[in-house]
Amino acid sequence: MFELDPGKILNYTEVFNTAGSLTFVYMGVFLIYNKVRIGEFTDSMNENIYPAGLVVYFALTLAWLLRGKSPGAVAAGVLLAPFAKVTMFSSFVGDWFTSLVKLLEDGIYTAFFIGSGRFLNVCIGSLWVTDSDGDCVDHGSNPLLVYPVYQNVLRPFAAFLPLWCRLAQNLRRYHDTHNRFPHLANALKYGLSLTVVFFGSFSPQLYDLSDGSDAWTATFVVCCIGSTLYAIWWDVRMDWGLLGEQLLRTQTLYPSRAAYYASIAVDFILRFGWTLTLVSRSFPFGQDVFDRHGGPLALTLLEILRRVIWSCFRLENEHVTKFEGFRTLSHIPLRFETPLTDKPPAPRRRILITVAEISVMVAVIATLCAVAAKT
């Protein structure tokens, strides 16, 4: 289904061995780091050396593991949308990309933490929160990065980029297939999510729910709820092919019907958690308490769990129904069979209509995002 070259992908043995070794190393470093923090181990070495070394080890392991596997081609297929052809695999990777917003933010933060020398207790006042004496102070156990470029550009960009890639992929699919549905409808889903990102990133005052008469606050709440409900409906009805004329599809591959109903309930709940990862600059219910009790970590792990469940039913639906039409053949033709001819080129008028519709959708979404950013 993914049309991958067997010589350029990792086999299951490599995946499990690498995952096991990385987990073992991570848990070991995590244990040592906490022992040093509470004083059970010697503190002759800076405690932040351990997580910084772990990041370097992970990066080197990933580079070694993917040598000769052409990972750049997959990344380019997602990041260069709509200029790159959209395949089933690049679409699937793009969907996973939207679930990694918090990881992207943490990656940018880690780059500043290591690159600025903060892990060696080097304090640059223009980057980190400082006290009256100019010394860096921690927020709980974490330094606060207040660099304006990070807060106002890089962090919103981490939430914007995955959604834009999927929106652009859907516009490219519409350009290639000329099918308004489902591609434009799916693009609209990501457009609404982008509006939520701009509201949450550039208008944090909208989190103040005490004044219910504020029109923009009400618009922000409606936008969040509407975008989330639309995404839930798309997951269940379109990506999974469930809750149509019948509750389940007539052809299913998993033996337990209860698994389908449970997955629908889990997706409904965890989708709201995914929306929080898009607007997590501040919360209306105590940011300090949320951070201190591992709220961001919990949201990230739950979103990854939701995406794993989504992946299982998404691939099943594509295999059974060919929902998005990536597999155009039901069999592989033999050498002696008549080869298929290419589709005739689309008429010029049809191309102009397609370009005009794409331009209108992009303009509408850009206008909504601009309004959200300036409120």
Topology, element by element:
Layout: H1 12-37, H2 49-65, H3 71-79, H4 88-97, H5 101-115, E1 138-139, E2 142-143, H6 148-177, H7 180-202, H8 215-239, H9 257-278, H10 287-292, H11 295-321, H12 348-374
Helix pairs in contact: 1-2, 3-4, 4-6, 5-6, 6-7, 7-8, 7-12, 8-9, 9-11
Contiguous runs where pLDDT drops below 50 for at least 5 residues: 282-286, 330-337
Termini separation comes to 45 Å
Spatial arrangement of strands, main beta sheet:
1-2
How is the main sheet built? 2 strands, antiparallel
The residue fraction in helices comes out at 55-70%
SS-based class: mainly alpha
Taken in chain order, the helices and strands follow as HHHHHEEHHHHHHH
Total strands: the figure is: 2
How much of the sequence lies in strands comes to under 5%
- Mean pLDDT, all residues: 79
Gyration radius from CA atoms, angstroms = 24 Å
Count up the helices.
12
Please tell me what the overall shape is.
globular
Describe the structure.
By secondary structure, this protein is mainly α. The chain is built from 12 helices and 2 strands, in the order H-H-H-H-H-E-E-H-H-H-H-H-H-H. It has helices at 12-37, 49-65, 71-79, 88-97, 101-115, 148-177, 180-202, 215-239, 257-278, 287-292, 295-321, 348-374, and strands at 138-139, 142-143. A two-stranded antiparallel sheet has the order 1-2. A hairpin with a 2-residue loop joins strand 1 (138-139) and strand 2. Helix 7 (180-202) runs antiparallel to helix 8 and helix 9 packs across helix 11. The longest helix is centred in the middle third of the chain and has 30 residues, at 148-177. The protein starts with 11 loop residues before the first helix and ends with a helix.
